[in-house]
Each structure stands twice: as C-alpha cells, then as structure tokens.
Amino acid sequence: MLPTLPRTCLVAVSRNRYSVPCELARRRVSTRRYPERVVIVAGDAIVANRARLRDPGQTAYDRFLRSSDAAGKRIKAREQARAEKATSPATA
Predict the structure, then answer these.
(1) Nearest one of 22, 16, 75, 81 to 31, comparing CA atoms
(2) Which residues in 56-80 are b (16+ Cβ under 10 Å) and which e?
(3) How far, rounded to the nearest angstrom, does the alpha carbon of residue 86 sit from its chain's CA centroid?
(4) Domain boundaries defined on the chain
(5) 2 CB-near residues (< 8 Å, 6+ apart)
C-alpha cells in the first residue's frame, strides 16, 4: 500500500522531508531513492525530483510550498521554533 501524502504537502524519506505539489495532498504517492536524488511519483507521473538531503532532520522546500499557504506558514513556524530550541542554551 502506498502512503498518503499529508496536508502539509511534505513526504518523509530517510528521516528528511521533501515538498511536493499541494494539489496532491491526501493522495497516494510513492518515492524512489537514488544516491543523489529523491523522486516522488503519483500514479505514473513524476511529480517531484529533488537533490537528496544528506543530514537527517532536514526539510527541502520548493516552489510548491508558498509562504502564503496556511500549511506553509505552520510548517515554517514549527521549523523556526525547532531551530531556536536547538540553539538556545539549556536552563537549569
């Protein structure tokens, strides 16, 4: 069974996330992992072809996810909060 693309329009591959066209939200997609690329397929069509991210926990945004989209704003706010949390000193 193929995974369903969430409303965030991000597909998880090897502990990283890649954006795909938002019109595919809640549809079934598959991924193809190559040494240098990640290819996302819906049906028989390639819908996204991205350079593979090397470090875990990264997100590759493309033109598909605009900052004006409600989901895009939530995702970017979450990413910013994670980055701030990671860089802030621990308090005792």
Answers:
(1) 16
(2) eeebbbeebbeeeeebbeebeeeee
(3) 20
(4) 10-86
(5) 28, 29, 30
Asked whether 47 and 39 are in contact (CB, 8 A), the reply is: no
Residue 4's CB is within 10 A of a number of other CB atoms, namely: 13
Kindly tell me the burial class for residue 18, based on how many C-beta atoms sit within 10 Å of its own C-beta (0-12, 13-18, 19 or more). Answer: buried
pLDDT digits (tens, 9 = 90+) for 29-46: 889 999 999 998 988 888
Closest by CA to 57, choosing from 7, 11, 14, 9, is 14
pTM for the whole thing? Answer: 0.63
* pLDDT exceeds cutoff 60 at 1: no
Three-state DSSP string of 20-66? CCHHHCCCECEEEECCCEEEEEECCEEEEEEECCCCCCCEECCCCCC
